[in-house]
Amino acid sequence: MDKAVGRNMRIAALDDDALQLDLFKQALHAMGHTCHTYLTGAQLLHSLQSECFDLLIVDWHLPDTTGPEVVRWVRQHVGLEMPILFVPHRQEERDIVEGLCCGADDFMTKPVRIGELRARVAVRNSPWARRGDFLERRINAVEAASRQLRDLHQFVSNSLQQLPAPNFVCDAQGRILLANVAAQRHVGLGPFEPQSALQGKSIFQVLHDLQDAQTLQPLLSPDKLLAGEIPAQSEGHDAKGRSLLMLCKPFTEFANVGWLITLVDMTEIRRALQQRDQALHFISHDIRAPNASILTLLEMQRNSMEPLHADELLKRIEKYAQASLSMAESFVRLASAQSNEYRVAPLDLASVLQDAVDDAWTQASNQEVSVTILQIPHSAPCVGDRPLLARAMANVLNNAIKYSPARGTVRCSLYARGPNWVISIRDEGPGIDPAQQDRLFKPFSRLHDLTHPNISGVGLGLALVHTVVKRHGGSLELESAVGQGVEFRLVLPASASD
């Protein structure tokens, strides 16, 4: 047979039968084409990553994969332009339909007839077929590009929705084009709101309360956005007290300019840094102060013309040492309450309160203060960490006794309120100004340094109380006014069996 008119084609043949591959190669060489043969699908797929062919001939049954899988891989990774001729073992409708649906262009069944093979290859190489193939390939390429663009858009949209940080995509005027789930949650929208709930709204209105901590000016403004003067990152606070890092990135899509705005919640990081600074100050100053006093006292004792009596010297050294030890223990207890895992078990809050009152008797007697329990049930079942809850109650009682006047009374109560137990401890001390009550539970905060300088402490006791109650799922209530004493209420969930 004469060589076919047309171009010299590069053809790849895949078959697990070496004799069949020799047949392909001889027949195709006789037509003036180049034939590369492969025994496994892996060999062909590896070759396709670096070589191009004008036609693929694919066997249906292979040792390491199947013909349909090879066709699917080619269509996905190589494209639609490469013609594929598949060769099933039998002429059954099911195999032929599957092959064509996978992306093959033509088929012929085994045993392969040389004349049919040459004819089908010649058709793929004819001028009119190439013209038709070119137009078809261009159409298919455009459709594939459109499909890939849609898939990419869907991928980007889905990826944005899955990001944990709030993200807003805005146009040049600040209208929101897209906002992810985290962004909707950030502004207070519920989980059942549609994903388009923020679309079309102004980013300036949505983030109106995000302000610079120093200047109190909004981080976002129309003038800055239109002028492109928004910094790449800036930090501020919103109305909920959150510390937020705002990242702004401009983007260009054809003739349109827009912004991607991301919010990163820095609240916990800032709080941790603040606690670190407070801890360093505590270690460098407060804990060192009693030890420095001991050294000063000893130096004075050595050089004084009238040294202290040994008993008085030891008494003062013991006082400073006890103060240093107490501060260190308070610091360790707070750190443990904040970070360690709680040992939760069933307990009786009535018993815990009674024990705390009994343990406070010595301190109360020394300060001529009486501690009474006005109301307490027979039992108050709860689930929690007993030692930490006992320490929390003891800290509140100790504070109440310390700030009570001589012959004053500290009144305790335990009662049910809905699904919770309430432990109330009220004193007759100086009270707390409402304007200062927000500082009360912050570590190292002491509100009575000036009015009661003789009362020792570093401001860690109530911070521990706040931490323990919160980690038990409860809340801490405070009722006070200047000169009217203080009532602390520890609200804790009752056990399920109650």
Indicate the proportion of strand residues: 15-25%
* Share of helical residues: 40-55%
What's the mean pLDDT score? 82
Distance between the termini: 97 Å
**Which class best fits the helix and strand makeup?**
alpha/beta
Low-confidence stretches: 447-453
Number of contiguous helices:
16
Described by strand count, sense and barrel closure, the largest sheet is: 6 strands, antiparallel
What is the total tally of β strands?
Answer: 18
Shape: elongated
The largest sheet has its strands arranged as 7-6-11-10-9-8
- Please tell me how large the radius of gyration is: 40 Å
What does this protein structure show overall?
The structure is a single chain. The protein is α/β, with parallel strands linked by helices. It is built from 16 helices and 18 strands. The strands form 4 sheets. The protein has a 6-stranded antiparallel β-sheet. Helix 11 runs antiparallel to helix 12 and helix 15 packs antiparallel against helix 16. The chain is elongated, with a radius of gyration of 40 Å.
Please render the helix and strand layout as text.
Elements: E1 10-14, H1 18-30, E2 34-38, H2 41-48, E3 55-59, H3 67-77, E4 84-87, H4 93-102, E5 106-107, H5 114-125, H6 127-162, E6 167-171, E7 176-179, H7 181-186, H8 203-206, E8 211-212, H9 222-227, E9 233-237, E10 243-253, E11 256-265, H10 267-286, H11 288-303, H12 310-339, E12 345-348, H13 349-359, H14 361-366, E13 370-375, E14 381-384, H15 386-402, E15 409-417, E16 420-426, H16 461-471, E17 475-480, E18 486-493
Parallel strand pairs: 1-2, 1-3, 3-4, 4-5, 13-15
Antiparallel strand pairs: 6-7, 6-11, 8-9, 9-10, 10-11, 12-14, 15-16, 16-18, 17-18
